[in-house]
Amino acid sequence: MKFKKLVFLIGFALHAISVQAQELAFKGHIYDSQTRQALAGATIKSSLNKEIGKTDERGLFEIKVTPSETAVKVVLVGYKTQVFTLSSEQKNINVQLEADVNRLNEVRVQGYDGHKTNKETAGSVALITSATLSRGSGVSLQSALNGIPGVRMDQSTLSEARISIRGNGVRASFGMRNIKVYLNEIPLTEADGTTRIEALDINSVGRAEVIKGPASSIYGAGTGGVINFQLQRAPYQEQSIEVASLAGAYGLRRLSSTYRNGGDQMNSYLSYGWQEYGGYREHSKDMRRFMTGNFQLFPSDKRIITLLLNRTQQNSQIPGALTQAQADANPLQANATNVDKAAARYQTWTRIGMGQQYRFNEHLSNSSSVFTYFYDLDHPLAYAYLRNTYQSFGGRTRFNYDPEFSVLPTRFTVGAEYNQGLTKGTQYVNNHGKEGELTGNVDYKNTQYSLFYQSETQLAKNTALTFGLSYNSLSYDVNNYLQQEQRGVKKFKPQANPRLAISQHVSDALSLHASVSTGFSPPSSSEIKNVDGSINPALQAEKAVNYELNAKGNLMQSRLAYDFALFKMDMEGELIAQSVQQGITIYNNAGKTSHNGAELALSYQWVQAEDDQQVKVFRPYASVTYSDFTFKDYNVLNSANEVTARYHGNALTGIAPWVFNAGLDLETKLGFYFYGSYFFSDKLPVNDANSAFNAAYHLLNGKIGYQVKVGRQLDINVYMGMDNLLNKNYSSIVALNAVGYNGAQPAYYQPSPKRNGYGGLNLKWIF
């Protein structure tokens, strides 16, 4: 018996040694597919669903598997489960996880560079994913942004869009103001604070983070907040080519092709396409051509290199605003002056950027990017004909250092951002859409830089304190070739902007946050002029102080996610526009406003991943915004700085007191899906006197489709949808504080499309 037992033990030991000898060892990283940040706590499981590894704080893992168990999966709350196959030839594994739209509270966000889950981040941060954008036709961000409480995108034609966050930016006469916008950590916002997002191809966006409220402590200028766009990246271990087509009402047509390759050494995304839109109104045609390249290289386990290439061409007619009588009589008509002057914008953008993430050691890492951005603009307007060229260059860098203190662990961030832009602009008399006499020839060299610092200290296991501080400088160098006396340099007072936040993570059901943040927003280069065209030396930046309380969490076995915010933001030195004659508007720091509000976002995941049902997604969601925004001190000044009107206590122009959004996502295992949404906007004042209003309106949109995989290589997605199902008359975007000349009524309204449908077909071939 002893001999048999000895033989058994020897045989068992030899078998164990044999199995161990056959095991394959792998190591690698797990990243967020969009932000490239390392994901800690991800679990790696074998094909037998046995845990075989876990990522550390740097996203690193080491595993061993037998040759029969090379099919593994990665599981992390807030992200889609990633299944992939290991190969003995793989040296450096770089797995990339996609955010789960049903668990956005658990997704790691960049936010204020905290790299925590959304519910653990102090302040209001909202996420938009590619799945969010796919609820609509994919030609506008409007429905996605309007689903975020406190965020508003107004757009009636594709030629113009205005985005505001908590009322900041709503007074912009064109483009965007008071909001900082990034694409792959490269600023889209020009050095003078203006932004145009028309060059952004919506279908190439993989994710967007929206920070609501001042974030100047780490992002520089902007009292409204920050929007961080990330371009799409290829899913891990997928190589594919996709052709997408779309057709819709009012001559909407779109065709694009996309190549994706998600490997361990390189991730490639390349898209090219065109889009045309006949327009709902007269004189509102829009044409786009776009090319986007987004490449990510993994040369070592310490370095990630990214490359961005983007070129977009847009030719858009501008129909202009109508009076109330004109809009009621015929909402399809264009402004007669805009038609006579052939008002339009013909613009071509090019952006090139390169970035690197480098980990020096376990304690120190760096993320840096450099960029150049240029465009040419051919812009006939109702009052002039503009021709501009613009070129900018700059960079952004930040160092993260974690000394791993045993007492009061603290993570430090220091960094800088630089952006210089040169605009060469000429202005002519507009003779029915042709250049006439030269009336202006001005160069602007705008230079902006920021230095920032942030520390995040763990006061207790579930309590964190964050302190941030930035130093910001901005100057405009103006060279007027026709009027030499109007040359000069406008240097704004340097701004120091602190932020203080404390977070208490009570449980999965509740995280509490309180913060105080400051921000500033300087006037753009087009807003610094006096009535005679000279530089206004007295004009300074708007300033804001924001006090905020947040409660976030998941209830009912994590099925119900909520995000609640209460805030009070006080602004002073607000820029007040005064129209002195057609085409000439001057600005003064003559206003103070109070922004008090409450925001609530809810979503309920009726079906969990572990539920074995034919319906794999049944997700109702809703958001509500209450805004009590008023003028505290508002004097209208004339060119002699004399007070001509007082609007103290009036409601803030362009702000609806109540906004409500709700919807339903439904997806089945058979491939059928339905997305529906409802949007309500309360009536809002369209002038500072509160004597005219844009009426309240509500919209109902829907989309149905079928997605199926034929064999192992062909993915088919066919869909159709309809916007404004109730066929309502409304104006999404209005010309605030419009002035009627020569006895005419003010033209406030730009009617939006009535009921309109669309349909599309996407074909993807997976190699």
Q: Which word captures the global form?
A: globular
Most strands sheet? 22 strands, antiparallel, barrel
Strand content: over 45%
The separation of the N and C termini measures 59 Å
Task: Explain the layout of strands and helices.
Layout (H helix, E strand, L loop, with lengths): L1 H21 L1 E9 L10 E3 L5 E4 L5 E6 L5 E5 L6 E4 L7 E5 L10 E2 L6 E2 L6 E6 H4 L8 H5 L4 E4 L7 E4 L13 E5 L2 E2 L17 E8 L3 H4 L5 E7 L7 E10 L3 E11 L3 E12 L8 E15 L2 E15 L6 H6 L6 H5 L3 E16 L4 E17 L4 E17 L8 E22 L2 E27 L2 E18 L7 E4 L3 E13 L2 E12 L20 E14 L4 E22 L2 E21 L10 E23 L5 E4 L11 E11 L3 E10 L2 E2 L7 E2 L2 E14 L3 E10 L9 E2 L14 E2 L5 E11 L1
Parallel strand pairs: 1-7, 13-16
Antiparallel strand pairs: 1-4, 2-3, 2-5, 5-6, 8-9, 10-15, 11-12, 13-14, 15-16, 17-18, 17-44, 18-19, 19-20, 20-21, 21-22, 22-23, 23-24, 24-25, 25-26, 26-27, 27-28, 27-29, 29-30, 30-31, 31-32, 32-33, 33-34, 34-35, 34-36, 36-37, 37-40, 38-39, 40-41, 41-44, 42-43
What's a concise summary of this model?
This protein is mainly beta and 767 residues long.
